[in-house]
Every structure is written in C-alpha cells, then in structure tokens.
Amino acid sequence: MNNFIKIGLASLLLIGCSKNENQLFEKLSPDDSNVKFTNQLDESKNISILDYLYYYNGGGVALGDINNDGLVDIYFTSNQGKNKLYLNKGGNQFEDVSVKAGVEGESDWQTGSIMADVNGDGYLDIYVCAVVGINGFEGHNELYINNKDNTFTESAAEYGLDIDNYSTSAAFLDYDNDGDLDMYLLNHAIHSESSYGKADIRNKRSYESGDKLFQNDNGHFVDVSEKAGIFGGANGYGLGIAVSDFNLDGNPDIYVCNDFHEDDYYYLNNGDGTFTESMKNYFGHTSRFSMGVDAADINHDGYPDLMTLDMLPENETALKSSAGDDNPQMLKYRTEKLGYHYQYTRNMLQINQGGKHFTEIALLSGVAATDWSWSTLFADYDQDGEQDIFVCNGIPKRPNDLDYIKYYSNSNIKTKLNSTKLLDKQALKKMPKGNVSNYVFQGGKDLQFKNRSTDWIENDSIISNGGAYADLDNDGDLDVVTNNLNNLASIYINKTNEKANYLKLKLRFGSKNTFGIGAKVISYTKDQKQFKDIQTTRGFQSSSEPIIHFGYGKISQVDSVQIIWPDKTVQTLKNVKTNQTLTVQPNKLRKVFNYAQLHARVLPIFKKSVTNLGIDFIHQENDFVDFTAQKLIPYQRSDRGPATVVGDLNNDGKSDIFFGGAQGKQAAIYLQNGNGFSKKAFSSIVADSIYEDASAVIGDFNGDHQNDLVVASGSGQFAADLVHRLYLGNTLTKSAFPDTKAMNASVVKTIDYDKDGDLDLFIGNNSKYNSFGKMPDCYLLNNNKGIFSIVQSKTFAAIGMVTDALVTDFNKDGSQDVIVVGEWMEPKFFANTKGNFREVTETVLPDNQNGLWQSITSFDIDQDGDQDYLVGNWGMNSKFKSSQEFPMKMYYDDFDANGTFETIITIEKNGKYYTTMGLDELVEEFSGMLKKKFNTYKSFAGKTVDEIFDVKMLEKAALYEVYNLKSGYLRNDKGKFTFVPFSNKMQVAPITSFVKADFDGDRKEEVFAAGNYFGVTPYHSRFDGFSGALIKDQKTIFLGNQIGIDLTQKAVRHLDIIPLNGKKYLLVTINNKKAEVYELPMNKN
Fold this sequence. Notes:
The chain has 1085 residues and is mainly β. It contains 21 helices and 73 strands. The strands form 19 sheets. Strands 33-32-37-38-40 form a five-stranded antiparallel beta sheet, with no helix packed on it. Strand 46 and strand 47 form a beta hairpin. The protein is globular and about 100 Å long. The protein starts with a helix and ends in a 6-residue tail after the last strand.
C-alpha cells in the first residue's frame, strides 16, 4: 500500500471518528437492542397509494413504562403486519413480548398508537387506531388494558372505544376537569364528492371521517362531539393533534392539523364542557398540508407555542419538481368564495403572543423547509435550556411530483387508473422517490434554530413516520425512537450525558388521572423561566413518555419548580438540585392556583375607542391584481393605499382627516365636531375617484391662510391616471398642478427647502408608467404663491424605487434635508445647502444597505441627544434571502424583445443563484425561450439561473440587489450613520409605518411601529403576524399584546395622532379594512 493511500485512509478514519464523536445521537444497532421491528408494506396485497390516499403515512410509536419497573418500554404499530411491544431490560436491550402480551392487533390497517392510563389504575394502557371501511379494511380501534403482569386485555368495546372509522390518532385529556381522562379521536377524510366544496361542509357530521370527542363517564366513553362544538365533516383530513392550555386559563385546548383544503382547527376550551373553534381569530395563516404537530414554550414567556409540518423541500431539485402553493387567483377563490383560511405549503412555527394571537415565524427561525415531514418533537435534547426540534421525514413515492401530475392529468390515463389496475405499475414508476434524512434543529436565542441534521444524527435515506421521545437508558437526557417505513425502526440514543445538567419529574397525581396529564411545571433559575406540561400525544400518530424534562447547561441548582396540578392547585419545590429524577405527588396542603398569575402583564397604553370617534371609513381595494399584468414581479404595487393625512381642512382650528381611495373608489373626508368626526362629501374629491390616492399632505400652499390639500396618485392600474392634484381652500377647489410624467407616487412631503416661508413639496416615486422595475424620477417642487414647478430635477432623477421620505436636518446646519428610503435601494441622504440639494449618502452611510425599505422616522433611540432614524424593512420572515456576501438579485429587461419588460428574481442557496419562480411561471412569460429547452420539470429542477437563461442576456439587463432585509435604526455617530438591526421579534413582517408621541404618559416621546403586508403570491405567504410595537429606547420594545393592541392580520398603511377635546388618539389606517381608533393615556402628574 503506497503512502498516498495510507494517508487517505487515515484521513477518512479520522473524519469518521470525529464526526461520530460529535454526533448528539448514536443510532442503536438492532443486533444490540434486539428491536427488529419493521413496518413493511406488503405489495402482494394489491393496494398502493393509487388506491389509498394515506398508504405511505406509516405507523406510530408509543413510549412508556408499562410495568412500572422504572424503564421505558416501546410499542410500534404496523400498517399491515403485527404490532410489537418491547420490554426494556436495561442497558439499551429490549425483549419482544408482543405475543405473550396480547397486543399484536387484529385490524387490517393500523395507524396511531397512544399510551395512557385509561382506567386510572396506575398502569399505562395502549390505544391503537385503525382505518376501517375502505379498500376492504376490517377491524376497529383497539384498547389494550394493562393487566399489571406484562399482559393486556383488548377491551375497546367494554369502554365504548371500538370505533370503526378512518382513524389517524388519539389524545387522552381531561377536557372537563372532572379528574378522569377523556379522549379526542382524530380521523381523516378520503377524497370524495362530499369532501370538496365550501368550508361549511365541516358542520355536517360524517361518521367515518369526522373527528370525535369522547367523555369518560365512569369508565365508559360517550361521544359528545356535537354538543361540545367539535367539527366532524367529510372534509376533516386529520393528521396531527396537540393538546395544551394555550391561553393559560386552566383548561386544556386542542389544535388539529388537517391535510389538503380543510383548515386546521383551534379549539379553545370554554371550561363548561364545550369548545369554540377559533382558528381565523388567532392565526394569520397555517400549513396547507398539515401533518405532524407539537407544542412547547420556545421563547420562555410561559405560553405554549406550536409547530406544524408540511412538505416544502429544502433541496432545489425536489423543490422545483414538486407541486407547491396555489396561484393567487385560486387562493383568493378558496378564501373569499369557499370560506377557507389562508394556507401555505410549508412548516409553520406559531409563537403564542400572550394567549391573544399567534405570530408565525418558521422562515425567520430557519425551520420552514424539511421536505415531506411527518413528526415534529420539541425537547431540549442537548440540555442547554433551549427547545430543540426533531423531525421525521420521507416518503417512498412523491405523488406531488409535477411530471407525475402532468402524466396523471391526461384524461385517458386518469380514467384507466380510476377504473382499472392496468396502469398502476406504470403510474407508480412515474413517481420519484422521496427518501429524505430526518432533521434536527438546535434551539437558540432570539427565536433562532440552527440546522444540526448533518452533525447531530446519522444521515440516511430511511423513511421515518411516527416518532417519540423518552429517557430509555435513564441517564437523564432524552432519546428518540422512530417507526420507519419498509425498514427497521430507529433508536437514537442521546449522548449528552454529563456534558449538561438536567432535571426530570414524574408526576403521580392519583385519582383517575394518575400521571397528571395536563399538569404544568414551571422552572425558575436566575436567568431563565422554562414552562412544560404533561401530554403524551405528540408529533405524528405517536405518544412520548409522560415526564417533565428540563435542561440547564452548567446550572447545578434550580431556584424553584412550580407544579400546577390538573385540579388547578399548586405546590412549589425550592432549591432543587439538578441531575436527578423526582417523583412528585400532590402536597395535601397545596393551595388553589390563580391562573391570572401566569398571564402576561398588559400595560394600559392603548384602549380601543368604542365609537371609533364616528370614523366609519372602510378602505376597499379594487379587483386589479398586479401579477396578471406583470407575472414575474416579486410583490404588488397597487395595494399600498390608502393615503391618510390629518390636518385642519375647514380652518376651525381642529384636526380633520382625509382618507384616500383605491382606483374607482371614493376618497373620504371626516371633519371634527364636538364629540368626534362626521363625514362630508366634496364634489371635487368625488369627481377624482378615477385616481388612486397614494399619499397626501395638508397645508396652506397659496398663502391665503386657508389650508389646502395635495394628493399624489400612484399604485394605479393605468399610467394615464398617475396625475397629482391640488385642492384649494375650504371648498377644496381643484387647481393646476405640474405634470409629473406618469410617475407612480408613493409619498409626498411638505418642505420649506428655500426658507422663503411657503411650503414646497417633495414627491417620491416608486415606478414609472406602472411598470415594476422601471426606474422613476422623484421631484422637488418649488412653491411660488401656490404655483408649483419642478426644480433640481437632475439631483432626484432615477434615485430609486422610493417608498417613504423624511424631511429632517440630519447634518444640523439649520436647513431642511431629505432622506428617502425605498425598495432595491439604500437609504439616500440629500443635504440642503442654501436651497440646493446634493446626495451625500456615501459619506454619511458608508455600508451597502440596499434593502426593501418601507418607512422612516426620526427618533433619538439611544438617548444620546442627536437624531437617529428608525427604518422599516421587509423583515426576515420571508423566502427572500440576502446578505452582504450573497445579495438577492433582480434582473430587469425586455428579455424576449416583445415590448414588455420582465423581472427575474434570484436568491442564493449553497453558493449558487436560483430563480424564485418555477418552470410554469417562467414558461408563461418566456414560452419561446424555455418551453423547448425544458420539456419536463425534471429537466428544469435544480438548474441555476445561469443554466436557465443565457448569461449574456442577463448581463445586458439592469441589475438590482438587496443586501439587507432587517428593520432597525440608523445610529447617529457624530453625523455618520451605522445600521443597527432590531431583534427578531421586530423582523416578522414589513414595517410600513411609524408615529411619534408620548404614548404612556411619561412626558417622553416614544415611537409606535406597525406593518404587515399581503400583496405577495402564495409562494411567500402573507406577512400578517406583526401586532405593532412601542419603541421606548434601543433596549425597551413592547409588542402589541403587551400594550393592549393587536394589529395582526391587518396590513397597516398609516399611523397618525389625532388631538380631540384635550385627549390624544391613535388613528390606524388599514389596507382593505376599517380604520381603527385607540385612546391614549393622559400625561402622568
């Protein structure tokens, strides 16, 4: 053997060893463990995914100590074979006792497996779900009651749980707080005529498909679904269920994941035996093909958060060859006509905002794309005090492959597949494999997760469905077991061991809820609060060990551990040493717990006006959709209204309000009266409803001591309608205004740049001729006794796609300067020297800060005496991706020389650039260029932008770049500015507006920020999770739920302060919704 080969082999050995040593989990060999269970699908039974929609959904796994010997045992379900029970013998060795125990199962198709002490005798029983009544499947759900001697007796009929439905899984919970365990049965639909249609199908009960809630009535389970408010329709494609007390009122709530078109269900427990389904009120959007789900507090605020799984691939080849989201028109139809909520094809991480609403942040947190994913399990696997995530993955065949869908869409093929089995083998061959390794994410600070899949676990192509966690070897850390399809089950042994400290609690509540299901445990240390609750049903078709597990890193003692029992009593353990397992029983002297103690404190800042001060303005968008005119643009422009301005329009010394209208919709003016506002029509304003009002200002422009109104047009459908207007005096008489050459305006500001005492104007434009990407000019208009003229045009020509502007003296020379922000550009600084403007951005903001900037305001956020500038950007909760090294790119040109200009958006992945659009969207625009080049989706998938388009063609195009998507502030360092990003809670959506005022009555100015934006394709999903935020200083920012305001699911366009009768009010103008008014507190004495 030559030296080169020796060195190479040695290197490989070293790499292999070091990688194995760094892995958090070691996969246990089946020969060592004796766990040789395989969920093998039997091809000889002549059934496939073509016959049964959920053929590849696999089986579940239940973990629990069935004989109370202190060792956790394992139970697997097999779809078509025998279920298996393995007794833990210690030392990571197990014994197959399935036959002797009598738990192998009799049903033809078995799914989920749940362990729970159903009869309250102190021993775990096993409930097994089955699919019965389709494809010849026979049997029923089975309940194995523990005989306390390692054997079980099947007793489902005796307990009323021998259900013959299309069952996926179940959850045992004490929903009525009577001390025993009730059961929620999760069923799934199959595609049929009755499963399609309007959302209200869910109100008509289907015996086979509809979910069911069973109340435990002295050991017999009674179906109370309808009485309790549980949906049970033929469109309930239930695949996942999570139980937790999401609003911390002491009553367990339920989250149900539904596949396909049906919404997920969010059942809030009313505490009287009924539930209120509240999905649309609490969640802005959800996963579309929702599968597994788990709940845990990931941000240490004491409220359970949620993760749901979908099937968005991370890999470009799989991504571009798989069907994804609806087109905008179909989503609009589903939500507005059929009544469904907003759903998108990706994982969702829903952050619980004080029980008031959820903010979805999976893209921000880096966990949105894990491919065809089944089970998600939150736990602190590395015991550092942060929740990590384990995801089970893979499918043998991808039925959503676009080439397969194209093949299947042929009417002849479809008919044969539906009526015969002649083409089944051919059709199955058309579906590519979907083998994907499991994922593991390490939890971190500031809502971030790091993908540790390549170094925490062994990467393989095994398909894992059900998954559960437990401390199998009693070393303190949590191990994971997965039920794999057509392969041996996996046991991942956690090797954290003594590297980090832990605390485990086993609760023994007594009565009929022996393991304390529903109990909450809160751990307090100097730096951290951790919240956990006891629920066994987690992930997908599976249940985990009924314990509480905390990780602490190097902390050796916990200050206190608070246990809130299911009967709403509490006891506290103090100065608890780590690295031990405590078995805790209720203290006889424990006291009744007041759940209000857990609720987040709400500062009394915003109080919604009951009367809205008489302002009944509802903004209405027109039906124009930008994507129909320019198919490849990254987002819309025509939905940025309405314009709003507050000022005295009738010269009575009181503030009035102008609300602009969308094109074809009337603007509205509200004049202040003694108690509020009343609407008044002006003929000149009504006559101009042909224009779309983008921005407006009020001021005395002609020196007659009466305020006038200037309205800038923009965001309209037609270039001819981009006309700005001047209305004079109390009657708002229309007057002449310069032609601004079809520039699409976004903002107009007053400025006395020449210090002559009158009001000049700055108009910022976002595009030209309504063509996205066509660089517009902005305008400075000089006022000469009410006559405006464009000046200094070269200075403001083609400065960028402006969205907002601020008049401010940033260099402290006593003259009014201008800062403009916009999309695909950096904030630009224009210094005013004796009335002449000059751009000085390079000298005051040296870093490259091209962003998708939306808004700007001045505020001394660091309280050092100079003006800093808050800047709202797109945020990080997006499929857009940018960095200084790899900016997001947009190419703009008439690529196919047909007289219309197109945009091509690209983002980086693994050092290469890919289009955000798929083949269908690109071919629709570039048919002649791409249709023959890529005649299958497979031939297109995984191709970089340089492989799709001619490089020379791209080089000729105008190139726009974005380096930074974060909102934050420009810190003033002696006249030069440095960008400082906000924390991630401020990056969940575009921040579109700011307003300054003394909001909390402390006689100091604060800034309130708001945002959200919906004008994107379903590819992105709506940005709807920002509730608003009060910014007091660089370290103190309160989100909306902390200050009495909730602006989630509202696309806020403007924030204004209204003075009325000695009080101050916040006016919130919302796109396509009613304006809202909030009363602010009076100044404190």
